[in-house]
Amino acid sequence: MALEGRFRKTVFSNGLVLVTETHREFRSLSIGAWVKTGARFERMRESGISHFLEHMLFKGTAARSALDIAREIDTVGGEFNAFTAREYTCFHFLLLDRDLGLGMDVLSDIVLNSEFDPEEFERERKVVMQEIAMVGDSPEELVHDMFFERIYGRHGLGKPILGTTNSVRSMRRGDLLRYFRKHYRPERMIVSVSGNVTHEAARKALGNLVRQCWPGRCKYNGADRYFGYVPAPEVRSGRWWAVRHSEQAHIVWGVAGPKYSSRDRFPTLLLNMYIGGGMSSALFQEIREKNALAYSVYSSLTPFLDSGILTVYAATAPGQVAHALRLIEDCIGRLMRETLKNEELDVIKKNLKGTILLSSDSVEARMSSIAKNEMFFGRHVPVEDVCRAIDVVTPADVRRAARRLLGTGRRSVLVVGPRPRKRRGWGMIS
Fold first, then answer.
1. Which domains does the chain show, CATH number per domain?
2. pLDDT at position 1, please?
């Protein structure tokens, strides 16, 4: 069944955008508030402030304590959570359709009236510090954070989303308030709703979010640089080995990838599926099944507004790093040397389309999809259009994308693990 007729959008006079997608077949709905801020928009001394702020928005308003917020959602069997990325922050609710009003009321309250109680602030600082420590104890997460720092340097895309121990320790409540008032404005927010809900019902439930001036935050029509946007630098190439005491060496191999609006977006998505998108992918078969070098191996495509990165992750024995990297280069190099057969590409297309269509059965996934399309493209992109765009990709398109990504010879490789026996060719990080 076509989804296009179910989608509607309203841009309010204060700049707030509401996007909805109606699904009568569900009893549930998902509400998301997407704020156009994240690690990318932070100054150096603000590192981690977007994430800290995400935590604090559930810590109480003038009308509700943190426990009140939790109880109201728990009482109706709902769920609420939030996450911070490099280019956005999202607060989301999963509720029964009958509880639209409750979800919107809580959302409006935390966005407009959060108090950032000083005691809660100090308590949550400790929680965030524990979260940073937890990442430090997870080599798979740590190596990705360190990799982004190496390839983007001091630019916002290179900052760890959680911040650092030092930046969080030095953060003050006043810093949080200033950042909140600067970034949490109606023209920087998208409210996305998907499920058994009409657009008009969602529009009416927005309440005070549509008023012209939010407390201390009237609409600002300034340039993006006011909010901290700085164009992304060229992805830095190099080889680095960060010495850590661990049983395995954790590898991230990467090349510059397409941004969201690139014409190579879909050919590169298919390339990503081919090399590391599942158990039948080339890397999984070659590195794990045939050579038994790793338990975990996969590839990821991460696009941004004006940059992007294609990465491969693998964890292997320290003495097998060079072997694993050769296999990664061999698998990916095949796409430059040879054109995939139509039958091979058809299998990959079915895999990618199946993943997309299966996620369409989730109101949370649909809420996320329509919000991201609005954020990065400014328009609705129906699932059917995505599938058609995948279908028209040819083997020659995939080969062209591979050559564009890999033909420069520029590579970025970071290994986190015990000190290597042979140090030649590696930039060492203690």
1. 4-216 (3.30.830.10), 238-429 (3.30.830.10)
2. 38
